[in-house]
Design brief:
282 residues; alpha/beta; seven-stranded mixed β-sheet; four-stranded mixed β-sheet; 11 helices; 16% strand; binds ligand T3D
Length: 282
């Protein structure tokens, strides 16, 4: 639908900033906002090795550029991402098998870990269908906002695989074991609205609203205390593996570090002076 397609136009709006030239993605940095658009629309933005390499390069730029305070991930055309390009996996029965473990080690694992480790919020605007590793790539992001026409499909079971790219980690944590099993065993299409109701994603909006709501979110995150947001992200990730005493210790340590920082001073000064804060970024 036209509304969801305009997520791409939103992604391209920032062309006055820095625009890197790639073949399989669009990538810009402007006003503290990095926008990465998967751009193989005729293959529903499925991943081949070249797209993986470009995404890795773009994420390295985000990591290295202190001006970037928030990252947007979205897709061009009518889909968000259909996971692995199965055209590259067209194996005939009896032929030499492809080592999928090597593919995960080379591509999908670094991608998911890279997004999770970025010390800034990653927003995913799901503009259309998100299937296979494409669905779980979205779940690896920090704030997922989807167009009403979008959907999430754990398509792996249809081709004899398991949910990868963190699917078996994120799904039960986000929606509980019963729903995780249903999604993974059946591979049915989960409409974005239901995904939001289940707590799989942050928000579902009308297609035409996706670019507007996404831009607002990005602008707000780009003006926030990036160091504080990075600490929130790290603490919430750590809570998945911590018992309460360890988590309380982590909160203490992070709070101590943040309390010694400029953003905390500025935040409190702005509150007392009844003015908006001017955070300096990372
Ligand atoms: O292999 C490894 O390295 C291990 C890691 C694996 C990770 C994975 O992601 S495995 C799972 C791979 N993905 C899938 O199984 C999803 C396959 N796609 C679909 O099931 C459907 O396309 C969708 C449900 C996503 C969308 O359906 P629909 O009806 O809206 O669109 P469509 O007609 O199926 O697709 C449109 C075009 O995109 C079509 O091409 P055509 O006929 O117009 O020339 C279709 O072949 C192509 N396409 C869609 N998904 C993929 C794809 N081409 C290559 N690879 C795809 N994954």
């Amino acid at each position: 639908p036209e509304g969801a397609h305009s997520a791409l136009r939103a992604a391209g709006r920032a062309l006055k900033g820095v625009r890197m030239s790639y073949e399989n993605i669009l990538f810009t940095i402007d006003a503290g906002i990095a926008r990465l658009t998967l751009n193989r629309p005729d293959r529903l933005n499925s991943f081949n090795d070249a797209m993986h390499a470009e995404v890795r390069d773009a994420l390295a730029r985000v990591k290295a550029d202190p001006s970037v305070r928030v990252l947007l991930l979205t897709g061009a055309g009518r889909g968000f991402c259909a996971g692995q390009d199965l055209g590259d996996r067209a194996v005939a029965p009896g032929s030499e098998p492809v080592d999928l473990g090597a593919s995960i080690d080379r591509n999908y694992k670094p991608l998911v870990l890279g997004l999770r480790a970025l010390p800034l919020p990653v927003v995913c605007a799901v503009n259309g269908v998100a299937a296979g590793a494409g669905a779980n790539l979205a779940l690896a992001c920090d704030l997922v906002i989807a167009a009403k026409s979008a959907s999430f499909i754990q398509a792996f079971c249809k081709i004899g695989l398991i949910p990868d790219s963190g699917g078996t980690y994120f799904l039960p944590r986000l929606v509980g074991t019963a729903r995780a099993l249903g999604l993974a065993l059946l591979g049915d299409k989960l409409p974005a609205e239901q995904a939001a109701q289940w707590g799989l994603i942050w928000q579902c909006v009308d297609d035409a609203e996706l670019p507007v709501v996404t831009d607002k979110l990005l602008a707000s995150l780009a003006q926030a205390s990036t160091r504080g947001l990075a600490a929130i992200k790290a603490a919430l990730q750590a809570s998945a593996g911590n018992l309460l005493p360890a988590q309380l210790d982590l909160e203490r340590d992070l709070q101590r570090a943040l309390g010694n920082g400029d953003d905390y001073c500025e935040g409190v000064a702005a509150f007392v002076a009844k003015r908006p804060p001017r955070f300096t970024g990372r």
